[in-house]
Write a structure and sequence with these properties.
The complex is a heterodimer. Chain A is an alpha+beta fold. Chain A has 11 helices and 14 strands. Chain A is globular. Chain B has a 7-stranded mixed sheet, with helices on both faces. A 5-stranded mixed sheet of chain B has the order 7-15-14-13-8, sandwiched between helices. Helices cover about 25% and strands about 25% of the residues of chain B. By secondary structure, chain B is of the alpha+beta class. The chains are: A alpha+beta, B alpha+beta. At the A-B interface, helix 11 of A face helix 18 of B.
Chain lengths: ~280, ~750
Amino acid sequence: MKPAEFLSPTTLNDALELKHKHGAAARVIAGGTDLILRMRAQVLTPSLLIDLQHAALNNIKVSDKYLEVGASLTISEVLQNTRIEDLFPAIHMACRKFAGPPIRNRATIGGNIVNASPAADLVSPLIAYDAEIVLKSANGERTMPLVTFFTGAGKTLLKDDEILTQIRLPLSAASTNAYFIKLAQRNSMAISQLNLTTRLNLNRQGLIETARIVLGSVAAVPMRAMAAEAMLVGEKSSEDLFYAAAAQARQEVKPISDIRASREYRLQMTQVLVRRALLESIANV
Amino acid sequence: MSDTHIVGKRVPAANANEIVTGQARYCPDIDLPGMLFGKLLYSPYARARVIRLDVSKARKIPGVAAIITHADIPGENSYLYAAADQPLLVIDEVRYQGEALAAVAAVDEHTADIALAAIEVEYEQLPGIFDPVEAMHPDADQIVPGEKNVLSSHSFSTGDVEAAIATADVVIQNKYQTQCAEHAFLETEGGVGLVEDDGRITVYSSCQAPHRDRMQIARALAMPESMVRVITPSIGGAFGAKDEAHVQIHAALLAHATGQPVRLIRGRRESILTHVKRHPFIVEYTTAATSDGKLVAVKARAIADAGPYTNATQEVLHKFGEFVGGPYKIVNLEVELIGVRTNNPITGAFRGFGAPQAAFVYESQMDDLARKLGMDPLQIRLLNGVETGTKTYTGVLIREGSAMKASLRKAAEMIAWQKRHSCERQPAPHLRRGFGIATTIKGSGAGRGIADHASAALEMHRDGSVILHSAAADMGQGIVTVMTQIAAERLGIDLASITVTNADTSRSPDAGPTCASRQTMVSGNAVLKAANTIRDSLLTMAARKTKTEKHRLDLKVGHLTIDGKPHELSVKDLALRASNWGIPLHSESLVHFEYPEDAPMATYRFAQEVFQFGTQIAQVLVDCETGQVTVERLIAVHDAGKMINPGGVYGQIEGGIAQGIGYALTEELIVEAGLTQNPSLENYIVPLSLDIPEIEIEVLEIPEPFGAPLGAKGIAESPLVPTAPAIRNAICDAINKPLYRLPMTAERILSIGDD
């Protein structure tokens, strides 16, 4: 591993200044659970690491429209947050399946996003709850829906001088009719062969008003199965409906074969697990 | 020895405190003044000619102390396990991915990395041979020039197999495939070499065979073995892969070249790419039986992929052959064993040593046979099982075999086998529950024809404390605890009074390698013998002092006893008196595992004489839509002879089963055209705590009558052996389809579930 300088700014502004000054040569480090591995493998060779642990990005607060989650919150902290568990339970479920306790104690929600792995476990539930993200630089900030952030495996719209600071979960999207499934080769410390989140918001008549089917590890970026979602809106939940939507989702995903699963298996599992997740989403209705 | 005071008691592992508090020193913890960091340059190709290897630029990099290639090795440029065909550093051709070409010693790790990158190698890639069947073809390119690709070929037969098959009521014939598997020990391979003031070389080695390491290091350095000292620090697991030498030889070469201490530790990726793996096997297997389920013949042909070099291939194949029929009475048996060179990863010793591959095959066959005959899988095993006094198909007499059927019966009782299907077999539309049984045989000891002896040296001091020197490597399996218990028992002292030195070839004579579940027997016997000598001195002293006949005396919990009653004389008193009187209180023993005269010398090489039996029953839940398997329950009944340390025995059983679950379901080194696709613990899927059910264990304590100390025998390997076939049979019971390939991944199960 190539040695890098390590700076630990105590304010976000200092961190942004450093990022502004050093650009692509600097990498932000929060938990480092993935970054360090990539540095060891010489995939990344930053000359400077900007540590975010002391940059005050680890709080959760409620505004009138959002639950605002600091980007350097660890997965364990997200897991233990009862507000997230109550309002956005699929995120809580994903945290439970995330690696194992030692990794969860270090890895952060922001890191899981900017890492831009197609298999990132937290991204599918976040997208399913219509999460927005805040990107800051020394020159200002911008927000965007998380679903638009990824441009390819390991690639995002994050600019060289920007830092992901916050994830905003719209309170209007909160739903307990949601479910997360991770398919993996073992029960912990596993990279998803496939992960997915479904969310259904029902209206007073019990018809589906909003539907989200978000899948990870079935395309270069985490993706929504939008045609399948559209089949659900305005309908009444039923096994047949979910079966049809799952078959549609299978048509929309574009998986590859890799070391963890074949393309064919991922296609098959998309159909099986979307159906299961939809059924589980309304299990308590 | 029915009223033992320490043997048979659950005691903490000898160095447990040091390990859990981080005090234990492993190779990577060794830090010496002026120490350099060693690294090896590994081939990225599976097969390539080395056109040019130029280290001149790399040598000039500041901080680089030495770079050595094959040309700089003073002695023999080869490992020596069973054959000397694998170079330490490649001369002109690399034959598997990860083969080493050069060794660097530098002031720090980063500089060593820079030096590796500055070494210029020009390769001409060559077409490799990756299919063992293709490599067997007479026209196939020779993988090692001058050596046949078929490096080991052996056939063994007894009875008239063809006639028996021809007249059998039922014949089951299948082809099996097992995978290349990685040991995944916690501590990767490492060694620290240094040059002593007098020119001797000392090497700290994470290994299973310190004396064999010494031999290999000495021949590489062209030094007499007396000038080489090998010490084992704490070792973080080995499972067979550290039986064969790895980087400790290179650490010694670099220390010799620089005159400075050199620490050389493999990274995880390098470790997975380079050390010997479990052999993948292709097995064609025929079982013939009568309509009432009696086995009449077994015929098998096994091809093992050796990678390019010999290593333990021949021995592993023979162990496969020795157990190919399982723990069953088979009169007609024929087996052909073929080891083939390829350009795949090298393969060698791994816990079980051929027995797990054999068990997967013969226990799958037994279930297929039972299914075909509509018989209970338990009954067909009881019907055919060996017993005490059975002569096996290899001609070996089983002197104690009652555990075979006892373990079957006990395991069946624990899970209420006859009522097993009264549970919910389909708890949800997509879920199926199944039960599988497997019963297996595994031997203890190196086997006939292989050196199988051990020494131990004990000395009691005037204060009654004892030092024990043994070169038996403890990789975590617990031999040090076992030896301490045996010595304490015989000398009537407590465990705390005994200090055991690390294996060190300069003060401990050879105990042989820690392999083949042999150390409890062999080093256990060596310690017993040495302790008995000292015990005799103490009792002689006591008899003189108390004017009592020796046979009435005993040593118990620190005291002399007369006719079983405690006497005021303590062991300490006796030790002081003995040392004042000049009665020797030190003893060095040498114990050979004596093979009996009725051993069938002519036919079967390496045959073992002491066996462990074991039965496991798995209860699984299969998700028929995803192919995923949950092991819900695992019953394990194993035979360990007399247990010395029950804690160690239970630990071995749990650990073996965990490894067996991985072997059954997820573990596979994926190799494409000789290149390993998953050289990391991220993608080489070993099971973790959440993947392993509560394991329900019962140990049968049936004292071993033959050559075992206090009736104890090894247990290190046997618990791994039945796990994969038990799980296989449970899955097949659940989904009603057979499986013939390991590992039984979700995808594979799903793809056969479609039929």
